[in-house]
Write a structure and sequence with these properties.
Layout lengths: L7 E2 L1 H7 L5 E5 L11 H7 L6 E2 L19 H10 L7 E5 L7 H10 L5 E4 L2 H7 L25 E2 L1 H10 L3 E4 L3 H5 L17 E3 L6 E2 L2 E2 L2 H11 L7 E4 L6 H10 L5 E4 L2 H5 L14
Parallel strand pairs: 1-5, 2-3, 2-4, 4-5, 6-12, 7-8, 7-11, 11-12
Antiparallel strand pairs: 9-10
Helix pairs in contact: 4-9
């Protein structure tokens, strides 16, 4: 039997625990503008019973000028408290297709100190295909107190990212597709150059999962090896706007890799500036 991540749970596991105390279910569905989908609207039409909706554009730093960057611990705590979630609960996060936007919120909860947080393998699509219950009923929420324990070392800002690139301090794993990484395809957001940071390696997010489920550990290890990522060294993850970088973070953490951090501004920041080095073509 192939070994799977300890940070994902199956739909069977979740179904057996529906409505049990101490469990928070979070719908973290988010889509790129070009997808023509809205996570909030889809949640209102159908969601896993008991789930609350986590709006990644709302629970964010509104002052950064960048899409859905990590908010302050205080703002995160206030927003998550209104969702009825405490830091000592078991939290299960899911999204529509599986392994797209949910790992970002999994990462956010971990950064804010939640120890028992998991991603639902297969997402909501897999849940529905299994014939498991869905509802459009509004989940009744009793506001709670969420006490954050912020791990600032898990996050990389622009100034540090620039030093990492200039001084080759860490490996960089970029989750964007090969076309955007090499500069062959345009970025989906206007005003951004395509290409990648010098020294970055390409680990397309689509290679890490199948049918919305995170691949087994052996497959993940092979993917990183083929991308040129040394799992014995530090890694910074990046993507278009900090969302799918967290899928790489989840995969790395699943393999026991601890020295990984996420560049929150990602390409939305790096690619939109004119003072940052950008290279095209395959990884060096």
């Amino acid at each position: 039997m192939t070994e799977k991540s300890a940070f994902v749970v199956s739909r069977d596991w979740l179904k057996e625990r529906l409505h049990k105390p101490g469990l928070a279910i979070v719908d973290a569905s988010w889509y790129l503008p070009a997808a023509g989908r809205n996570g909030q609207e889809e949640y209102e039409k159908a969601h896993i019973p008991g789930a609350v909706f986590f709006d990644q554009d709302k629970i964010a730093d509104k002052e950064s000028g960048l899409p859905h960057t990590l908010p302050s611990p205080e703002f995160f705590a206030q927003q998550v408290g209104t969702l009825g979630i405490t830091a000592d609960e078991t939290v299960v996060v899911y999204d529509g297709p599986g392994m797209f936007s949910a790992p970002r919120v999994w990462w956010m909860f971990r950064v804010m100190g939640v120890k028992n947080v998991y991603v639902l393998d297969g997402g909501f699509d897999g849940w529905k295909k299994a014939g498991y219950p869905v509802t459009d009923e509004v989940t009744k929420i009793a506001a709670t107190f969420f006490k954050p324990s912020f791990n600032k070392d898990a996050v990389v800002d622009f100034q540090e990212m620039r030093k990492i690139v200039d001084e080759k301090r860490s490996q960089i794993a970029d989750a964007r597709g090969a076309g955007r990484f090499t500069g062959r395809d345009a970025e989906p957001r206007a005003g951004m150059r395509s290409g990648h940071m010098p020294g970055a390696r390409n680990v397309p997010v689509t290679t890490l999962s199948e049918n919305g489920e995170l691949k087994d550990l052996e497959s993940l290890r092979r993917i990183f090896d083929e991308a040129g990522i040394d799992l014995s060294g530090p890694v910074v993850t990046s993507c278009g706007s900090g969302v799918t970088a967290a899928v790489i973070t989840l995969a790395l953490t699943s393999l026991g890799h601890k020295d990984n951090r996420l560049y929150d501004g990602s390409w939305s920041e790096w690619g939109s500036r004119q003072d940052t080095p950008v290279v095209t073509g395959e990884a060096e």
